[in-house]
Amino acid sequence: MNAKKYFPTALALYFTYFIHGIGVSIIGQYKQDFASMWGADKLSDGTFDVSMVLAVIAALGLGRLFTLPFAGPISDRFGRRLSALIGVGFYACYFIGLVFSPNMYVAYFFALLGGAANSFLDTAVTPSVLEIFPKNGAIANMFTKFSISIGQFILPFVIGMVAGANLSFKTIFIATCILIVIDGLIIAFLPFPPMNANVEKAATEVKKEKMRFSATSWAVIAIGFTCTATFQLWLNCNQELGALYGLSDPSKIQSFYSMGSMLAILVTAVLVKKWIMPVRVLIIYPTVATIMLLIIYFVQTPVICLIGGFVIGYAAAGGVLQLAVSTANEFFPANKGKITSVVMIASSISNYVILNIASYITKAGGVDGPKYVLLFNVVITVIGILLAIFVNMRYKKELERTNPEAAKLQFS
To answer: Which domain holds residue 47?
Structure first.
């Protein structure tokens, strides 16, 4: 297979994740605007209660959860292109629908569509890049996160430009909608690689059988839940934490977070390619994130929010979910779309359940609510570390059985 002719396809698919990076972050940057637009109550300090906005953000996870069971099989049966185009269509509806929603209930519906868009992009983009770059699948999949991080990095600057020009915040939503529609038109005409072209015939026979999940594969799927919780809790609650700690411009946290995640992708890509197995990263990065979350809880200063944003961006949002997906794909090489769906279902459940719990903690905790969310984040992340340790133990045992030399090199 001549992979070079599919490079433009890969770029177009990565661009959908650039837009996705904006899509999953932008509501959190305009919580007060949306709360005002949807009739939220005012708090004693004059700001609006944003709990309803957090509930709408959580609907993104619910939308993914509803559609992932269908998105994977559709991708495997009808092709990656169709799955990508469905995702693009849903995202266009999401961006336009949100800014014209008269209340949180209508917005909730469009957030469900945004989650559905994410599902179809997940099951189109991840299998496609694994098929375009079969020898560097883990790295190629990590660059989906790099694309997301670029979108999240530039968003605060775009917000500043829009505010400086005295334009409505709705401008960004409309412009982003136009961009993803244009990208969808390009994807419709670009070539896609043959599905499972790099999978041996013996492996494709497994496709005819029911997928069998081991304890190890279930643990990897569960990591999809925990690692998503770590970065989603931070991503959607850091603004309130920054304000609580006296940071004059909490939106800066987003830029530091994005810089950390982008650096992590570049560094981790080199590490995974030359020195370390992806499963090892599943332990190391969450451990770093846990330590940083605890430091932020105890060292309550404005600057620690910026440092924490960078470190958590690196360790929690720097490709851990993508490496979990790539690891899961190793267990099911002939069912890439389906296993991607399964891991992302865990991620979606996390997005919905965890953010709803965070909404409750924020409301019940009053002024100190953001600090309690930090502690909640620590608990979830530690569970992820324990799961990763189990996966590494089982992975090592299996590798020792099949390739003792490689096991000795990687786990020494």
So the answer is: 3-411
